[in-house]
Amino acid sequence: MDVIWSRHYGLVEKLSLFTGMWPYLKPRTRYLRIGLMSITAVAIFVPQIAYQIRCERDIQCILTCVPTFLFTIVNIVSLYTFSINSSKIKRLIERLFVDWEELETPEEIEIFKSHALFCKRFFAIYSAYCFLGVYGFTSASLVSPILDVLMPLNESRPVLLPIPAYYFVDTRQYLIYIYGYAIVSCGIFMTAIVAHDCIFVTYIEHVCCMFTILGSRFECLFTIHNNAEKNTKSDSDETYCKRIAYLVHMHRQILEFVKLVEKIFTIPFALQLLILITQQEAGGLEMSRYIFYVMGQLFHLFCLSFEGQKLINHSLEICDKIYDSSWYEASIKSQKLLILTMLRSFRPTFLSAGEIYVFSLESFTTVKKKVNCYRLGM
Q1: Per-residue pLDDT averaged across 91-97, rounded?
Q2: Phi, psi for residue 149 in degrees, rounded to 5
Q3: Where do runs of H (alpha helix) occur along the chain?
């Protein structure tokens, strides 16, 4: 089991260990790493707050700093959310291990492996995109100095800071040091964001996998029994009832798993959604300056919405799988148990950000349309 975990989820574990978000860390080690992350956040907060104070009542100036300010807050909230809920995170991971051990057929093992392989590929692509995006955002500050050397003007070009903040020094003279400071800080914080999101995707993919397996078991429930050696009718009905009761219990466990994931991740994701909304209010000039930032946020929202849509689709398929089975061969008692599960499956299972934004492609399309409206209007 450890070999399978390391093969498919090793990247998530390494990123979580680095940021102190891994629930199996010793408490002292976890607190030390989270403390170092907090110190890094304070080192970023102070210049940003000073920048906002210097803006006085200039709303446009304040909005320039708000997205990166909220980005720092999101990291801290994510870190402390994981620290506070470390026992719940550990319980979810242990549930994943238990479900691995309870697989019954080679087909179910292949289903699990396919979802785990998808997670592995997603982690690699998502982390690469996020780090390239954040380094592209901060590296924009080097454009002016490079152009001053390659295409000098009568006067130096304006300094574009990697992070809008007041650094208490001459920004032109110490730009390279400010850039290095921003690269290190943003890299550390992006590691926390990627670890947070990858763990979230791991849980969603696991739930989708369990819904697929549950649907397969419902669909083949009566077929397997008919192909087996039959006993008396009463024994047959009792076997059906026990098996259906087990599957109903399995369905309930999956729903409880989703509820626990919702409680842990809803607040950090609500703040991340607030970043995107705030950035749309920053104006056309800031939309151009923050092209890497805005595109990164949209890609981030798309990935989460895509996973949320998969969860919705897989939860709704349970009803169809039950209907496709030979339910009519079961007793009335067994059929009543199936009806309860079918009724619950009519309601989609979903995750949300602060109970405001439901992770789905429909919600993402709505946000994307609003972004396009802002861009066209400006």
Answers
A1: 90
A2: -85, -45
A3: 2-19, 27-55, 59-84, 86-101, 106-139, 143-150, 175-227, 233-280, 284-289, 291-324, 332-345, 361-377
Q: Decide: 248 and 345 in contact? Cβ < 8 Å.
A: no
Domain ranges of the chain: 1-224+233-377
Tokens of 126: 């998502």
Check: CB of residue 334 under 8 Å from CB of residue 354.
Answer: no
Structure tokens, 124:
């690699």
Q: Identify the helix (H) or strand (E) that includes residue 352.
A: strand 352-353
Q: CA angle at residue 363 from 357 to 368, to 5 degrees?
A: 115
Which tens digit of pLDDT belongs to each residue from 123-169? 999 999 888 888 887 887 888 888 888 888 777 778 878 888 888 88
325's tokens: 């089975």
Answer whether 241's CB lies under 8 Å from 337's CB.
yes
State how far the alpha carbon of 12 is from the alpha carbons of 18, 171, 226, 307, 342, in Å.
10, 37, 44, 17, 35
Distance between CA atoms of residues 371 and 375, nearest Å: 6
Global pTM value: 0.86
User: Alpha-carbon torsion 310, 356, 198, 262, what sign?
Assistant: negative
Q: What is the pLDDT of residues 243-256, one digit of tens each?
A: 888 888 999 999 99
| The pLDDT of residue 330 | 73
User: CA separation (Å) from 358 to 83, 126, 195, 202?
Assistant: 25, 21, 21, 18
**Exposed, middle or buried by CB within 10 Å (0-12, 13-18, 19+), for 377?**
exposed
Give the separation between CA 294 and CA 306, rounded to whole angstroms.
18
